[in-house]
């Protein structure tokens, strides 16, 4: 029996089975970043053998680290054959535990063929997350930083008494992946910035982008006028937006189709006076009960709803064309628009991203304001022509009946409607208007919402270009407060505020020249635009509507 046990213990099959069982029980290897106390280079793998201790039922037989082969191996086999099998197993487990603590692990196919220091099994690795250096992990996974050799060459060749006297360096970028050169400007900022850009292209090609920004935490202005400036350096692949992916094209197409559907729904809703009563009561009466009505009853109204849908879509497309026409001469690339459907206005506008770095704040202002200007011009034209047609009895066949209290949704638009249609028309229960009035009203309201000075909206970009990024914080906080209180937009203030918080809250990235002034007339145009936006989005309360004769207040 003892001889059989010794033969079984020295069999290569036992070693193969134990090694196979060991591989199956080890957890999946995980790479981790080596910390300095381990003395391993960055990116190496940390070996942790502690999971081996949990393999209680594993049986492994191995030679000692200093053991030999040949005659020593035969003597060892004879000695082990004389010992009980249980004692041998206990010694093997103790040996495996010691080697798991020391980080070494070796095996041989048989005691007689063992070679000192050589393992016939491939090394088995296991990794632990207990000692991961989080900072170094973020450095590896984060954006690529600038090359310190290039930074040294830039400091030696670019800066000096005649251009920019460097005093210190600071991290630059969202994650500190760049370098901010802080110092004293020794000439005209635009001339020096252009010279530094040319020298950077000659030295590194298209590897980096150089930014001229306001010096952070500066307590005084530049003696030559304007704020003190610093220069930021970022890799081109880090600072420039990425290309449009296939999934973004698919999402853009789906959102456009949903926007078309929401615009048609708006056109159908404008026919509320001629819709089936059960459908109207189901969607307007909060206490309505019973099964939903047959939606196929709305199919005959689709054709008559198309003029309103076409008008709203035309305004939004004209808005986007304005952005692209302003961006093309300035070599600014724009991404595809992501239309946002809305069943009250047809659409909330669209999200259009910059796909290239803007050269200066003037470009940011011009491109951002071109879209709302084009959309507002077409919207106001539709609104005015629609009111004129509504007051002309010859076009009575094209008119639709809407409740008069809808004109209380906007102070400015309600007053214009009151001036053209008259007091008696707006003081009735319903008002006969042309579909162009609805399309123009919705277009002006959507444009006003997008002109609010907050986040990455057109108004926020325009404000950032005209007054700088610091001014956007105060205006944005005020805008959020007015939306939360329902002062702007009425019942649409909450959904619009949530939309901005989820999709458009982040300010635009800085321009290459983020310091140069945009001029007085641009600032004046922005202030006038914000004033008109407020007049459009402020609803009329009952007392004021009664005094102005806008809507039938007693119908509430």
UniProtKB/TrEMBL annotation:
Keyword Plastid: yes
Transmembrane feature ranges: 246-268, 297-318, 338-358, 370-389, 409-426, 433-452, 472-502, 523-541
Biased composition (Low complexity): 82-94, 102-121
Subcellular location: Plastid, Chloroplast membrane
Alphabetic keyword roster: Chloroplast, Hydrolase, Membrane, Metalloprotease, Plastid, Protease, Transit peptide, Transmembrane, Transmembrane helix
GO biological process terms held by the UniProt record: proteolysis
GO CC aspect terms: chloroplast; chloroplast membrane
Similarity field: Belongs to the peptidase M50B family.
Superkingdom assignment: Eukaryota
A GO molecular-function annotation: metalloendopeptidase activity
Role description: Probable membrane-associated metalloprotease that may be involved in chloroplast development.
Domain Peptidase M50: 309-467
Protein name: Peptidase M50 domain-containing protein
Name of the gene this protein is made from: LOC123105351
Ranges where the record places region Disordered: 61-123
Topology of the protein relative to the lipid bilayer: Multi-pass membrane protein
């Amino acid at each position: 029996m003892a001889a059989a046990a010794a033969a079984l213990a020295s069999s290569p099959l036992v070693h193969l089975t134990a090694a196979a069982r060991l591989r199956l029980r080890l957890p999946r290897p995980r790479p981790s970043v080596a910390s300095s106390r381990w003395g391993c280079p960055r990116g190496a793998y940390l070996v942790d053998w502690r999971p081996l201790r949990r393999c209680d039922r594993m049986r492994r037989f191995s030679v000692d680290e200093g053991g030999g082969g040949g005659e020593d191996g035969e003597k060892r086999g004879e000695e082990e054959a004389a010992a009980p099998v249980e004692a041998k197993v206990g010694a093997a487990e103790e040996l495996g535990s010691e080697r798991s603590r020391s980080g070494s692990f070796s095996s041989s196919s048989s005691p007689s063929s063992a070679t000192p220091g050589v393992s016939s099994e491939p090394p088995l690795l296991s990794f632990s997350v207990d000692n991961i250096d989080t900072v170094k992990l973020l450095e590896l996974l984060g954006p690529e930083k600038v090359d310190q050799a290039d930074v040294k060459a830039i400091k030696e060749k670019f800066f000096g008494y005649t251009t920019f006297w460097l005093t210190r360096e600071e991290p630059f970028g969202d994650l500190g992946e760049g370098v901010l050169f802080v110092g004293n400007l020794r000439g005209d900022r635009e001339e020096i910035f252009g010279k530094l850009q040319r020298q950077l292209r000659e030295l590194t090609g298209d590897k980096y982008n150089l930014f001229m920004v306001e010096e952070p935490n500066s307590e005084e202005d530049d003696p030559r006028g304007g704020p003190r400036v610093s220069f930021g350096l970022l890799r081109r692949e880090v600072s420039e937006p990425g290309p449009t992916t296939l999934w973004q094209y698919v999402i853009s197409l789906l959102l456009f189709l949903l926007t078309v559907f929401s615009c048609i729904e708006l056109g159908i809703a404008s026919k509320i006076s001629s819709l089936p009563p059960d459908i109207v009561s189901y969607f307007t009466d909060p206490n309505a009960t019973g099964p939903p009505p047959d939606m196929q009853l709305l199919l005959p109204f689709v054709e008559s709803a198309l003029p309103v849908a076409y008008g709203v879509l035309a305004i939004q497309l004209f808005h986007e064309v304005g952005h692209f026409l302003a961006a093309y001469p300035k070599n600014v690339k724009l991404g595809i628009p992501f239309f946002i459907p809305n069943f009250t206005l047809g659409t909330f506008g669209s999200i259009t991203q910059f796909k290239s770095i803007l050269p200066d704040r003037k470009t940011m202002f011009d491109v951002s304001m071109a879209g709302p200007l084009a959309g507002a011009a077409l919207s106001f034209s539709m609104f005015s022509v629609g009111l004129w047609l509504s007051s002309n009895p010859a076009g009575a066949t094209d008119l639709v009946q809407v409740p008069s209290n809808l004109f209380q949704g906007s102070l400015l638009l309600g007053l214009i409607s009151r001036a053209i249609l008259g007091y008696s028309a707006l003081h009735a229960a319903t008002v006969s208007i042309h579909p162009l009035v609805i399309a123009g009203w919705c277009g002006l309201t959507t444009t006003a919402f997008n002109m609010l000075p907050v986040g990455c909206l057109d108004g926020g970009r325009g404000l950032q270009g005209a007054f700088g990024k610091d001014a956007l914080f105060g205006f944005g906080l005020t805008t959020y407060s007015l939306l939360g209180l329902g002062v702007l937009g009425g019942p649409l203030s909450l959904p619009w505020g949530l939309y901005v918080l989820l999709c458009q809250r982040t300010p635009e990235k800085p321009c290459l020249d983020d310091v140069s002034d945009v001029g007085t007339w641009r600032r004046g145009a922005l202030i006038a635009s914000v004033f008109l936006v407020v007049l459009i989005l402020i609803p009329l309360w009952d007392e004021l509507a009664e005094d102005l004769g806008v809507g039938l207040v007693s119908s509430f």
